[in-house]
Amino acid sequence: MHIGIPMYISNGLGYIAGIAISFFMNSKFTFLVGIKLTRFIKFLVTVAISYGLNILTIKYTIDFLSFNEYLSQFSGMVIYTTSCFVINKLWAMK
After folding, report:
1. Cα–Cα dist 64/22, whole Å
2. Span 58-80, mean pLDDT?
3. What is the pLDDT of residue 1?
4. What is the model's pLDDT at position 84?
5. What is the rounded average pLDDT for all residues in the chain?
6. In the prediction, which pLDDT does 12 show?
7. Are the CB atoms for 19 and 84 separated by under 8 Å?
8. Looking at residue 36, what DSSP letter applies?
9. Which residue, 73, 74, 93, is CA-closest to 84?
């Protein structure tokens, strides 16, 4: 945004950059596998599933467990990170 890119475009570009960097770093350093288009597509599916679980966790912890917003966000972050790692390990990075 500092260089004049509109807020929503900046936000989207940030997410795209973050996902690309995450895929590269996880491929090279966490799972020690090569960069392949099929792996990247599976990685995107993994991110989408994990994000969905994150949102469901936040909703559940607020609506049913009466967590405050900060604790709900933290719970969602734990679920996102854990599910992303497990799905990548068992499927996407194979």
Report:
1. 32
2. 95
3. 80
4. 97
5. 95
6. 87
7. no
8. -
9. 93
| Distance (Å, whole) CA 6 – CA 43 | 28
Measured from the Cβ of residue 48, the count of other Cβ atoms closer than 10 Å reads 10
**pTM score, two decimals?**
0.89
Contact indicator for 46, 26 with CB cutoff of 8 Å: no
Task: Kindly tell me if the per-residue pLDDT of 2 is higher than 90.
Answer: no
What spatial distance separates the first Cα and last Cα of the chain, rounded to whole Å?
Answer: 37
Check if the beta carbon of residue 85 is closer than 8 Å to that of residue 26. no
Tokens representing 38?
């099929």
Residues 6+ apart with CB under 8 A from 35: 23, 24, 27, 28
Question: And the tokens for 83?
Answer: 């599910």
